[in-house]
Write a structure and sequence with these properties.
- Helix content is 50%, strand content 14%.
- It contains 10 helices and 8 strands.
- Helix 1 packs antiparallel against helix 2.
- The radius of gyration is 21 Å and the shape is globular.
- InterPro entries: Plipid/glycerol_acylTrfase.
- This is Acyltransferase.
């Protein structure tokens, strides 16, 4: 191995150790207070406790962002925000995004921590049993969904109504504070294999699942400030989490657009009205076609540079 290569390997190891040790230390610094304060909610809700936990979480995210800006200077960020999108820390937003890598969540946090309220997303109720992680999701107000299987619902249709009511309660809890509720409409990370299995009509995306967005709009739609479409593109290839934190991602492109909400969108019942469901799905697919074209244009722009 040449001296130059040896030095590069050493720098990579040193960077990896410094990043991982800083994130670990930060997690141990911020995690226990969040969990301890969360236990006090067993005796009643407290707005002050919620605000303190959010401040602690944003502090943890802030350290991650400091690492990104100071330890990973190799990564160039190109961020574009729709002029019609007035983002602030006191807003209430629904956000949808394409999903390619675990890095997507870090990208979302990097952008949002100083521009938008803490980002939350739907999580499965079963995660509550994962030590620390599940409890943190619950304490921070992530909507936790109890979902019965299709087989269980077929035997007892009332379970579907129960699931929807649980989802409604989870979403309504967000209304006591500013929030950003994120929905990855594809439901899973994009891979070429999944794309081919689905026979997706989109070049850069999997088929969108409209049900979660319909549910969130039904519950929160008349009380949100905007429906936001975040598009994330990695022009040099989709990275893994380790690659990102080692500084091996040359460029990340983020574009945020405001999605206008038609008047009819808040007036139907997605679960029970077949005509409304079909119209809603067509509306989502049109958004997805526009996103697909946007991604292709971004890739073409950076490929020509």
């Amino acid at each position: 191995m040449s001296k130059v290569k040896s030095n590069n390997v050493f720098k990579k190891i040193a960077k990896g150790l410094s990043v991982s040790s800083t994130i670990t230390a930060s997690t141990f610094l911020h995690g226990p207070p969040v969990l301890a304060l969360g236990l006090t909610k067993l005796f009643g809700q407290s707005k002050k406790v919620d605000e303190t936990n959010i401040k602690l979480t944003n502090s943890w995210l802030g350290i991650n962002n400091w690492l990104i800006e100071n330890v990973l200077p190799e990564t160039e960020w190109d961020i574009y925000v729709d002029e019609q999108l007035d983002l602030n820390m006191d807003g209430r937003y629904l956000m949808m995004c394409n999903h390619q890598s675990w890095v997507d969540t870090t990208v979302n946090q990097y952008f949002g921590v100083s521009r938008m309220p803490l980002t939350r997303f739907f999580t499965k109720w079963e995660l509550i049993f994962i030590p620390f992680v599940g409890q943190a999701f619950k304490i921070l107000g992530f909507p936790m969904m109890k979902r019965h299987t299709k087989e269980q619902i077929a035997k007892n249709p009332e379970l579907k109504k129960r699931d929807l009511e649980e989802a409604r309660k989870s979403c309504q809890q967000l209304l006591s504070q500013p929030f950003t509720l994120l929905n990855y409409l594809e439901g899973t990370r994009f891979t070429q294999e999944k794309h081919e299995q689905q026979q997706s009509p989109f070049q850069n995306l999997l088929k969108p699942k409209a049900g979660g967005l319909a549910l969130a709009l039904n519950i929160l739609g008349d009380q949100i400030d905007a429906l936001v479409d975040m598009t994330i593109v990695y022009p040099d290839g989709v990275p893994g989490y380790g690659e990102f934190w080692l500084g091996d991602v040359p460029r990340i492109v983020v574009q945020l657009d405001k999605v206008p909400l038609p008047e009819w969108i808040l007036q139907g019942n997605y679960e029970e009205d077949d005509a409304f469901r079909a119209k809603f799905q067509q509306w989502v697919e049109q958004i997805w076609h526009e996103k697909d074209q946007r991604i292709s244009a971004i890739k073409a722009k950076y490929a020509s540079e």
